[in-house]
Predict the 3D structure of the following.
Amino acid sequence: MFEFVEYKIWRIKMKAVKYTDIEPVKFDSDVVKGVKGRVLIGKDDGAENFCMRVFEIAANGHTPRHSHEWEHEIFTHSGNGEVVLKEKWHPMSPGTAIFIPGNTEHQMKNINDEPLVVVCLVPSGVPEL
Amino acid sequence: MFEFVEYKIWRIKMKAVKYTDIEPVKFDSDVVKGVKGRVLIGKDDGAENFCMRVFEIAANGHTPRHSHEWEHEIFTHSGNGEVVLKEKWHPMSPGTAIFIPGNTEHQMKNINDEPLVVVCLVPSGVPEL
């Protein structure tokens, strides 16, 4: 009998990256408008607990109105927008942090001419983008 | 025989907060200079997987040079600084993301006149500040 052993080689490295140097994934459909998403730190970096993404929401753009099991921890980097939480719209401006627990309907929209840029983190094991 | 059952009532609520509206904890000692820390989203909010803090590092200020078992995921919100990772200093400016794996020595310093403001996340279960 042979014994099969799986070896995992973890290449976990430190990383410093400007988010604008990452090619974005563009989202435009019936439910999402003018959104660019980037994974800054995720499973490919060996991040085992949570994942950092950045979303740029263009003027007149918005994310989908949806809910999912996992939470969001969001930090507003630049621009101005609003986030709906339980039917109430809250202002988002640079420095606004938002906690969206799991299974909570939410949506963000830009309310200005410049892009709304938000850092949005999710736990590991869910879709990164 | 009685059966004891522990009921946990989770009061997990959505939250929207401007980081400047939170009273900071100030750090100044032999190893850390001119640093204000704030927990934006943590265990008191019911965040079970990771914790969002913001650090403001004043002109000429720096965080301690240290390492610990847990990782950091950092996003530079404003200001200009540098982070040392394995003896190499990397620039930090608005939009720079940094992944510091666990057990990796690190330190951040301000290199400008305005505060260096960074969002810094840690996994749950470690000191929040």
About this structure: Residues 5-9 of chain B have pLDDT under 50 and may be disordered. The longest strand of chain B covers residues 50-62.
